[in-house]
Amino acid sequence: MDDGVQVLDPVRSASSLPLLRAAGSSQDPEVDVLIAGYGPVGAVLAALLGARGLSVAVVEPRHEPTALPRAVGVDEEILRLLVRLPGLADLLDHVHACGRQMILGPGRRVLMELGLGESELGMPVAAFFHQPTLERDLRAGIATLPTVQLQLGRAVTALHQPTATGLDGAAHHEDPVTVELDDGTRLRARWVVGCDGASSPVRRMLGIGYQGTTFAQRWLVVDVATPAPLAHLPYFAFSCDPRRPSVTMPTPGGHRWEWMLLPGEDPQQMATPASVRALLRPWVDPDQVRITRTAVFTFQARTAERWRQGRVLLAGDAAHSMPPFSGQGLGAGIRDAAALAWRLDEILRGLADDGLLDGYERERRRHVETVIAGALRIGRLVQTTNPALSRLTRTVLFTLDRTPGLRQALRGGLTHQRPRLPGRIAGPLPGAGVVLPNPRLRTLDGRLLQLDELLTDAWTLIGLGADPVAGLDPAARAWVDRRAATTLAVVAPGDLRTHAGMTCPALEDLDGTLIRLLTDSHPGHAGHASRLGRLGRLGRGRPGTAGDPGPPRASATRVAVVRPDRFLLGVFSTPPRGIDLPGVAASPAAQTTPVPILTRSIRRTD
User: How far is residue 397 CA from its own chain's centroid?
Assistant: First the structure.
């Protein structure tokens, strides 16, 4: 389980943008993005933005990263993102991969065993990591990015956000946000992102509510270091023992247990060495391990009322906190960072207006709410102390696990779901919202590699047996060129030589993964997206005004257009046209009148 809850105890040239700029007539230095908070989520966002050459200031009250392994688990999607960040290229060498999990009953009797299946992302489906090591390595990588500036030992104390009233009567935020720090320093940022935790000062300054529940139930977490992995406890497991529900999991260099505290138990007394040794004894010889951390925590299920106010956004625990039972607390925050980074990049480079950010909360909130609901269901199952209900639950799980056919399916990864964006939020195109797989490929010169080795932080176009830009109209070609999009073609095994003269890289899809993606989506012609909604403001979901583009063109080739965060915009059955791609909408300046600017000042109240 994640401990990310309320705890009681080709990279674009960095020289293309200066780190600090004079902010108009102001003497305050200006950055593209100011990030409040340098925990894992803030650090990931800083790395993603800094790698794109954007100027970033990170403000963090603490000088050093956490010394405690709070969050411990990540899934394949998060691992895929992390290994691309500076400092984390060898992350997989330092994690404990997990291929299955168990549900146990009293006496560690196995009630159900669940296989996690195979990943199409080229990563372990799930893994456990050591948070202090990850944060240290990531910070070392960020130190190599010249456009990221750190303000450690400093805290944000006030935000001043200019507001103008447009012709539509709505408030518009066109000028940078002025940020005051506790040492009197003032910075101006075109965008501010609060990654400052569940008690987020930024969120409180904005006056945004944090709706949901803080649960009174306490859990004791104990981390130990071991000389070797515990062979009798190789997997993550829930223990559905009504006498004391618990969770156990292997970690790099050690093991973690979490025990639910019972009514009337004193948390401080339960965290004493004597009590911890007594809890460990049924599982392991306490003299054979070294206790590295003991803490008591509660958990929350909360989401912010809104994740954006003007040019200030929220991410990670500042936007949402969730129960730890699904192990997605940290992963949800890192997904926020990934969803924000490419959108902010497009806006700051003038490739889109800030309407592009409408899709951020729409996509992420739906996913977060789904994860929270699932975690609460798991929590109700795990935390059951009613003997009769626990006995019934154990009987059902045991029976299901022994049912012919179902047993094999459960062990084979029946419960493993391929990552994708929720519902129809991703857009109307076939395949929209599906995560791009990371299969094995062969190049024309015989090299074997994975797809991610060819991709950058930009958009990607993949053609089925043809150059994906060959049939683009001028508007679409300009769209591709302005974004420095990656283009490549995939062919079936054995067909590589017949495509040797292609103008873009041709790659042999050894497992047919990408070919299935391009053919199984059953896309209509490219104009289908135009009729359902012009994508000029990607993520808004507003209907467009484009007319019927006519019948599909004869020279059809299937093209997958992939967002920078590796999710599909969709699959086109003819080369996409400019009107089908997310572009620059009307200039926001044209929608406002030159009325007097009012500055909204927001200060810390604590």
Answer: 31
Residue 578: half-sphere exposure toward Cβ, Cα within 13 Å: 11
| Choice between 587 and 232, residue whose per-residue pLDDT is larger | 232
The two tokens of residue 38 are 């340098």
Q: How far apart are CA 202 and CA 358, in angstroms?
A: 20
Mean pLDDT of the chain: 83
Dist CA 467 CA 491 (whole Å): 11
Contacts of residue 216, Cβ cutoff 8 Å, sequence gap at least 6? 298
Q: What is the pLDDT of residues 297-316, one digit of tens each?
A: 888 889 999 999 999 999 99
Phi-psi region of 541 (alpha: psi -120 to 50; beta: other; left: phi over 0): left
Nearest to 307 by CA among 240, 165, 381, 211: 211
What is the distance between the alpha carbons of residues 482 and 471, in angstroms, rounded to a whole number?
A: 17
Cβ-contact 221, 69 below 8 angstroms: no
Q: Give me the phi and psi of 218, to 5 degrees please.
A: -100, 145
Instruction: Give the list of residues 6+ apart from residue 285 with CB closer than 8 angstroms, or none.
Output: none
Match 């080709």 to its residue by tokens.
10
Query: Across 5-9, 380-384, 410-414, 442-446, which has the greatest mean pLDDT?
Result: 442-446
**Measured distance CA(51)–CA(145) in Å, rounded:** 7
C-alpha dihedral sign at 234, 238, 240, 242: positive
Q: Give the pair of three-digit tokens for residue 99.
A: 């291929």
Query: pLDDT band at residue 10, thresholds of 50, 70 and 90?
Result: very low
Residue 5 confidence (pLDDT) above 50 = no
Q: Residue 37: which residues within 8 A CB-CB, separation 6 or more?
A: 58, 59, 60, 194, 195, 196, 197, 316, 318
Q: Please give the distance of CA 53 from its chain centroid, rounded to a whole number.
A: 20
- Which range of 7-21, 223-237, 555-569 scores highest in mean pLDDT? It is 223-237
- List Cα–Cα distances, 292 to 211, 236, 253, in angstroms: 34, 19, 11
Q: Is the pLDDT of residue 348 over 70?
A: yes
Write down the pTM of the prediction: 0.85
Strands 312-314 and 186-194: parallel
